């Protein structure tokens, strides 16, 4: 290999560069540049013409909703109250009453909800209440607890019918919840 280089490209120390050796060096340089450009263009072609096909990517979040049971417990025998709505938003219309009525609300994590925890927002007129976390594997301080349901009472006296909205929310409420187990909301004046 060394003999080949010396014959065609080599220049000895006190030797004049011959035209033939200079031409060989120029030709070799051009060939190297052309080969490099060809390889770079093939690399660019391969990079931009390749494609990857994947199946459909579906992203879905967890779902959390509750079942709601409402009873009028003013009398000794509880009377069920109709709850309407879909999985995430429910509403209860409480009839007008000039006397104080007490209603018991039981919110229970639905069996087919796939989120572990969530909470509910209760709206009564212009007032908003937040429940404690519902679900499994909750931490209260250092203690893990399971709270599949929460029950609270609403004491109200209203001259016209009143709607109570119940919204189910997945995740954790960042504020301080105001409705814990067996809490009572006292709205004995018109809200």
List keywords for this structure.
191 residues, alpha+beta, 2 domains, 7-stranded antiparallel beta sheet, 5-stranded mixed beta sheet, 12 strands, rod-shaped
Molecular structure report:
The protein is an alpha+beta fold and 191 residues long. It folds into 2 domains: 2-49, no CATH class; 66-187, no CATH class. Helices cover 20% and strands 42% of the residues. The chain has 2 helices and 12 strands. It has helices at residues 2-8, 19-49; strands at 66-72, 79-81, 83-85, 89-94, 97-109, 117-124, 127-130, 134-140, 143-147, 149-158, 162-170, 183-187. Strands 3, 4, 6, 7, 8, 9 and 11 form a 7-stranded antiparallel sheet that branches. Strand 3 (83-85) and strand 4 (89-94) form a beta hairpin. The radius of gyration is 39 Å and the shape is rod-shaped. It starts with a helix and ends with a strand.
In brief, what are we looking at here?
The chain has 191 residues and is α+β, with helices and mostly antiparallel strands. It has two helices and twelve strands.
Structural class: alpha+beta
Q: Count the helices. How many?
A: 2
Order of helices and strands: HHEEEEEEEEEEEE
Q: Characterize the largest beta sheet: strand count, sense, and whether it forms a barrel.
A: 7 strands, antiparallel
Number of strands: 12
How many angstroms separate the termini?
A: 100 Å
Identify the overall geometry.
Answer: rod-shaped
Percent strand: 35-45%
